[in-house]
Amino acid sequence: MAAWSSSCLTPASRRRILPGFGLSLACTLAYLSLLILLPLSGLAFRASDLGPVELWAIATGERALASYRVTFGASLLAATINAFFGLIVAWILVRYSFPGKRAIDALVDLPFALPTAVAGITLATLYADNGWIGRHLEPLGVKVAFTPFGIVVALTFIGLPFVVRTLQPVIEDIESEVEEAAASLGASRWQTFIRVLFPAIFPALLTGFTLAFSRSVGEYGSVIFIAGNMPLISEITPLLIISKLEQYDVVGATALAMVMLIISFVMLLAVNALQWWAANRHSGCSPSLGAHQ
Amino acid sequence: MSIEIRGIGKRFGNFVALEDISLHIPTGELVALLGPSGCGKTTLLRIIAGMETADVGQVLFAGEEAAHVHARDRKVGFVFQHYALFRHMSVFENVAFGLRVKARKVRPAEAEIRSRVTALLKLVQLDWLADRYPSQLSGGQRQRIALARALAVEPRVLLLDEPFGALDTRVRKELRRWLRRLHDEMQISSVFVTHDQEEALEVADRVVVMNQGRIEQIGSPDEVYSSPATPFVYQFLGNVNVFHSRVHGAWAEVAAERPEGGPESAVTAFVRPHDIEIEHHPLTGGLEATVQEVHAIGPWVRVELAHASELIEVELTRERATILALAEGQLVWLKPRQLRVFAAPGKTMEEGGSGI
Q1: Which of A225, A256, B55, B266 is the 20 to 30 Å CA partner of A146?
Q2: Which of A7, A184, A195, A197 is the best residue to mutate to test the B interface, defined by the most B CB atoms within 10 Å of its own CB?
Q3: What are phi and psi of B110, to 5 degrees?
Q4: Nearest residue, CB atoms, B72 vs list A184, A292, A293
Q5: Is residue B79 within 8 Å of residue B146, measured between CB atoms?
């Protein structure tokens, strides 16, 4: 409804009833500029010290390219895994009541609360060749720690709460009557899920996916402990930036940061556009009819 | 298709929602389940639909036990109070839903689906809204779409749960008449739940009055209104004055009705406000009362009178009120034209005065 009304405002209804719009807008803009725009433009400014040819050379170096692949690939994979399992977790937490439900609900927040370094060390210990889990995976020929696979594990760990917490309120909102209506019309459980429930959940799932993905792209602390950080294989871009900074190669670090910024921005924009489309395709503007309730 | 309900009982924890309900609904009948909220009428409807299971008893569709038939296989059309339309589907797709989810072998071809949905939308007079989404419709339009959606699968039984409960009075009246016509055209059995006695009396062939999980009375709208079987039905269907005590028992005799158990026992007498006559002069067996307030409400004039500590409500036609020219504080005599006496101090909804 919110989207509907905002997109259907006629000039006459633009008169504001709430006071303080000017002041709060100014506050918001100033705050956002200071916090987000200023550092970002500083970054762009710094990067412009380099000539385009130099910039391109650094940004497309072999090590850099490999690190993009690892970072964005692992993030995408982790976010996808989380979208799938997060949906199941959220669904169970909302729809069923069982002993220990509250404990599990609280557990979901753990990756939020845990310092990322702690998570990284814990995961690395668990999945190392002699760790509790790694020990059993080793004979199967599966190596997790110190491989790109380990990065995916770490990113999945930290991304889960984003999906679950985004989905929960949306699933709670689905009326059971809608499911009953589908059943009375002859739909099976599966058909009800695919045709009725999933379309209702999808925009939120996309939001959760985006949040988990963005978080993963920027993740540093938990990844470096489990990744092994081998150049060209399991080195993430944030780590590459850090190592460049440690060598006082500020310009090189800035160039990589610029690339990260641009890719992230484009991806977020794309997902946001998708979200907007998913949320708005079912409500148009028809002021004459309006919503009755 | 006929529906037979035998000895249905249902509890939610300690709360008895339904107790020993038996009811037969022949093919083609439109039945109203009428009762106050919490009387179990919606639970009964949901049991018929297969959305709830009864603790005891049977539901038979056309003579066949339906207990193990899942809601989706019952061929029952269900209409919800709050429409329960699929928000992300257009009106057309909402109506087509029941056809699209059919197994491939029995699913109609796309062209067939199109023509059937269009026909249904025409039936509910909303074919011009096919491409809209539910959020763009008014409440009345949404409910008609919900009905079209339920009818798309050609149900054998149509169940409606307070279908007009969320609509305003004018739309509600219009849809009522429309539902009646539709029911007659489709020739199916319909059951609808309502707490609105006017709605039940106007639309239904038969009214089932329910209270506290039990059936109080089953009968035609005229029967339940003019000869209520229990004090509850009397009070639930329309306004009523309730009198207790022997004195009023004597009053009852005036109207030539003898309470069972003799004049000495305590009785409760029920008189509808429009069944009381007001006179300026004393009447034999008449009740003395003082006029307290006079309101003109639409075609009626409602007079509130005080008899001792009891409040009596009388409805007069405008003509009669003009002739009487009642004024506040005036002393008048009342005489019932028609009243009903229940012997025991019946379970009444409230003590004395007027019901509802």
Answers
A1: A256
A2: A184
A3: -55, -45
A4: A184
A5: yes
Q: Do A183 and B86 touch (CB under 8 A)?
A: no
Instruction: Note the pLDDT tens digit of each residue in B175-232.
Output: 888 888 888 888 888 999 998 888 889 889 999 999 998 999 999 999 998 888 888 8
* Helix/strand/coil for B16: strand
Considering only CA atoms, which of B228, B171, B174 is closest in space to residue B197?
B228
* Dist CA A278 CA B1 (whole Å): 42
Interval A124-170: pLDDT, tens? 888 887 778 878 887 787 777 788 888 898 899 999 999 999 999 99
State how beta strands B287-297 and B331-336 pair: antiparallel
- Residues in chain B closer than 8 A to A185 (CB atoms): 72, 97-98, 101, 149-150, 152-153
- Residue B165, chain A, CB below 8 Å: the answer is no
> What ipTM was reported for this prediction?
0.78
Distance from CA of B118 to the nearest CA of A (A): 18
Closest CA to B160 of B197, B204, B98: B204
The domains located in chain B, with CATH, are 3-232 (3.40.50.300), 239-355 (2.40.50.100)
- Neighboring chain A residues of B71 at a CB cutoff of 8 Å: 180, 183-184
**Which domains, and CATH codes, for chain A?**
65-235 (1.10.3720.10)
Task: List the single residue in B74, B82, B138 with the smallest CB-CB distance to A289.
Answer: B138
| The pair of three-digit structure tokens given for residue B149, joined into one six-digit string | 């959606």
Q: What are the two backbone dihedrals, phi and then psi, of residue B211, each rounded to the nearest 5 degrees?
A: -155, 130
SS3 B182: helix
Query: Angle, nearest 10°, between helix axes B139-152 and B91-100?
Result: 20
CA distance A130 to chain B (A): 51
